[in-house]
Amino acid sequence: MAPTDDLPDNWGRWGEDDESGTLNLITDAVRARAASEVRTGRAVSLAMPVRPAPIVMGPFAPDTREVSPVQQLMALTPHAAQASADVMLVENHAVWTHLDALSHQALDGLVYPGRPFADSVTPAGVTHGSTTAFAAGVITRGVLLDLAADGPLPGGPVTGGDLDAAEERQGVTLEPGDALVLRGGRTLTENPPVPGVSVDGVRWMHRRGVSLYTGDIEDARPPLNPGVPAPLHKIALVRLGMPLIDAANVEELAAVCAELSRYSFLLAIAPPRILGMTGIPVNPLAIF
Amino acid sequence: MAPTDDLPDNWGRWGEDDESGTLNLITDAVRARAASEVRTGRAVSLAMPVRPAPIVMGPFAPDTREVSPVQQLMALTPHAAQASADVMLVENHAVWTHLDALSHQALDGLVYPGRPFADSVTPAGVTHGSTTAFAAGVITRGVLLDLAADGPLPGGPVTGGDLDAAEERQGVTLEPGDALVLRGGRTLTENPPVPGVSVDGVRWMHRRGVSLYTGDIEDARPPLNPGVPAPLHKIALVRLGMPLIDAANVEELAAVCAELSRYSFLLAIAPPRILGMTGIPVNPLAIF
Amino acid sequence: MAPTDDLPDNWGRWGEDDESGTLNLITDAVRARAASEVRTGRAVSLAMPVRPAPIVMGPFAPDTREVSPVQQLMALTPHAAQASADVMLVENHAVWTHLDALSHQALDGLVYPGRPFADSVTPAGVTHGSTTAFAAGVITRGVLLDLAADGPLPGGPVTGGDLDAAEERQGVTLEPGDALVLRGGRTLTENPPVPGVSVDGVRWMHRRGVSLYTGDIEDARPPLNPGVPAPLHKIALVRLGMPLIDAANVEELAAVCAELSRYSFLLAIAPPRILGMTGIPVNPLAIF
Amino acid sequence: MAPTDDLPDNWGRWGEDDESGTLNLITDAVRARAASEVRTGRAVSLAMPVRPAPIVMGPFAPDTREVSPVQQLMALTPHAAQASADVMLVENHAVWTHLDALSHQALDGLVYPGRPFADSVTPAGVTHGSTTAFAAGVITRGVLLDLAADGPLPGGPVTGGDLDAAEERQGVTLEPGDALVLRGGRTLTENPPVPGVSVDGVRWMHRRGVSLYTGDIEDARPPLNPGVPAPLHKIALVRLGMPLIDAANVEELAAVCAELSRYSFLLAIAPPRILGMTGIPVNPLAIF
């Protein structure tokens, strides 16, 4: 069932039916290490703030409006109730901070850990590898490797060597089960070239036992190697079963880490407890 | 500007424009106390799991379907991309675990701290007292008072005396800035009578400096006193500016607290970072 | 129950519970007159074409997009089915061609024919004066009065005298039960001043027995008389119970009428048969 | 490009880029014939009435609700405006009266008239064979063939012979360009067997020049011949390019035809003028 090429994978490592992927690496010892990072309770959000686009009807609406992953419609509530309510239309995979479920992506028609994509993702929802795996939250130690301490990264690959160097520079070591947070100092919607994690970088994560990846670096634009599947969204997510938090906002985190001279923290990830989705907005909190 | 009756309020306490209400009570010392609760990193979700209702088209759909606060529509994605995505329609104030923004309710036409409801809640969104106040997350110490340790509560009022007794029984003391979590062992949709926090209970919270309220006890059905505004949704939320997490799921929390003989924990609240809403789904995590 | 000022109204004319308003004027004789207009089957649409705004997720969506009253989401369908489907989110009262239900507007807290607005329009839908009245379609004779044959109208009032003059110029006479279609040659979203039907014009419609109003002229901007309710949306709709089709597109109609030297036709109005709405998109067809 | 088996098709008949299919058969002579049917202006709707499912938030909503193709959300409107508005979420291809666009279905990866499905139906909308072709309305002569005059049809095929017999019994003859309306006296959601048009019936339509098909008979359940594509949704729609109105309501039409002893009428089809959809709700009117 597992692929036979030389790219890394975890298919079968935790069983044929596993839906947790590298979250399996978060053991009691990992959580205790995370707990030991908490000293003051200071928390930093890794989420981009999103202003919803209001759905308002009437003759003089503007011709264009900001695109937002969230549209808000204020609901009529009974006058006597003196209450307000709203409904929101949410595009999970727009460019904002969200957690990709394992079956968000497939490769050669298969999702992690080797099941048919068409059986896992159906018109009625996701039957395998959905947000159900994250619904009770994820707690682990997070480590920021700030590759942009001396300025924004240019385009091109982020390699394992870059990550080794950052660990050494910052005096921090990623342990198995930790979440990796990378900072490149770029925004995803900038004009290319935009840097990206390379296959070598993903091998590094695999070797080191990263449980979850996030940051402001994703797959490069233009692709680093068009002949190879996207390192994060195809190799890490599909082959390693490593959940990804896309489009994180790590500017404030980097400033606080620099201020405290500490690059590790408890990372609390608590998406709304909605089952069966392909992805879900999330507000990861780094707690110091 | 502040009401002149003898019900408690915080209008003006933190300024005329304040949008944080009792979250102002969460000081560095409170957060440090919360931090000191973290030892193992074990986490418990206080959210009800929600299964979305799929929007599926076709001739043989069932005549009825479960009502869910979330509807999911699987989006067509390009075949070559081998990716899946979905859109969700979310009813923030349905019966599921969500955080009420301060302007979700008004009393006598005013929202906290005494501003006109009609100016704060508009067809284009909430301009004052919205989820913007919570968007970066809330970290504080949480304390569970389990009123149902000996069995589900009957209907009727939960008073300050009940809370004092629970503290004594459990050997825990709520400190200013803590979040209060109550358990009555009942579900909100049970047949009445369903118990509710009384005005006396809200006075207790005010006196003790509760920063945020949650649990499985809300305003009673039938109302405890039809001549008095709803204690939680009108007095605590509107007059005290105390955020409420409705419809929490505290069964697992109570079991873990009993197992550990500890009723306090770090409470991490991290709703999606969406601004300007009347409420937002949330997955509160109690971290031990 | 009926108002006591000197503005016209039909409250009570067809009973206290009436939901059809001036559609009651469409008798068998009116329909037969409409039928007699049909000779060739040539049809002209009076609807503005609407291009939906697609809901597409992905990293490189544009920063802004056209605002549309309709958003379209392509649904995932099973691969084997080789079928496509979509869901649309429709804003009924945006600036496009739609039919206003009678309870879309209220005046002094009342809707046609004198019922409380708050009882008729509820959070769960419209209980009185909704699209239910139009759901089986409306067939009557339509008459175009082209006030812009010599160029677009300036801002300001359209009076009964203007309508008399147009009838005489065109050699057509509006009969009781006919639908009136006005053309001013302006678009609703142009910069003010934009012309509007005056109270005098509405009195003319009342006197002549107009059953339904449409065209490219609505209530003026700026208002003709700020001290008087909007002639079409408050006096015609609420007091006369006259359905309005907002934002019609009458350019092609005017060209065909001029070509044929005929300003009357069968008007077929067939909105989707959806009950209980405040308004509904419609594609009125003028059939010659 | 055209298929080489012996099933009928119109691929190439009106060009490689045609989007109108059999609507091309509606000539001026056809419309004049339709016009000659109009005598009294009496109109009958062929649409099922739909009651929307309200989206209402609050603690005591029912556990289940009726499934509806339309969900309605009443929008907050400014109190001073005394106006109401709503938004509707519409599932075009649910079981209600809607018009299928030509690219709603594909066969062997191709849509009418032989173009790749994946190029025509994209995540951003339909680029070929969409509702754009119907947006200005369709006017033609309609002919009802009532196969259930003596009682509901059993399951099984509707053949060309059945249609010939109905014409003779009713004294009506379908002419090229007419729309065919069939009545079987069954509802689509009944337990199987439910009757369906056979390939032979579709050949009859092709031979006779039917421009559009509707009625209460669709493709049979169970399928008449699992080895052959669905006669209406794959052969008529995809190969002939014949638009289908699914789930019509022909009970009142049949009663009126019997009362008048006339089985032909002007058929006015006027869906909302929304471009680029896979299908669209419609309220077809038979005008006598």
Short description:
The structure is a homotetramer of 288-residue chains. Chain A is an alpha/beta fold and 288 residues long.
- From the helix content, strand content and strand pairing of chain A, which structural class follows? alpha/beta
Q: How many β-strand runs of chain A?
A: 19
Work out the radius of gyration of chain A: 20 Å
Name the beta content range of chain A: 15-25%
User: Going across the major beta sheet of chain A, what is the strand order?
Assistant: 1-19-17-11-13-15-16-6-18
Mean pLDDT of chain A: 95
Oligomer: homotetramer
Count up the helices of chain A.
6
Of all protein chain pairs, which has the greatest interface, and how many residues does each chain bring to it? A-B, 76 and 76 residues
SSE ordering of chain A: HEEEEEEEEHEEEEHEEHEHEHEEE
Overall body shape of chain A: globular
Describe, in plain words, how this protein is organized in 3D.
Four copies of one chain form a homotetramer. The first copy, chain A, has 288 residues and is α/β, with parallel strands linked by helices. Helix content of chain A is 18%, strand content 24%. Chain A has helices at residues 28-35, 117-120, 160-170, 199-208, 231-239, 251-260; strands spanning 43-45, 53-54, 64-66, 70-75, 85-91, 98-100, 110-111, 115-116, 121-122, 125-126, 138-146, 157-158, 179-183, 196-197, 212-215, 244-246, 264-269, 279-281, 285-287. Chain A has a nine-stranded mixed β-sheet, sandwiched between helices. A three-stranded mixed β-sheet of chain A has the order 2-4-5, with no helix packed on it. In chain A, a hairpin with a 2-residue loop joins strand 9 (121-122) and strand 10. In chain A, helix 3 (160-170) packs across helix 4 (199-208). Chain A is globular. Chains A and B meet through helix 1, strand 4, strand 5, strand 9 and strand 10 of A and helix 1, strand 4, strand 5, strand 9 and strand 10 of B. Strand 5 (85-91) of chain A pairs antiparallel with strand 5 (85-91) of chain B, so a sheet runs across the interface.
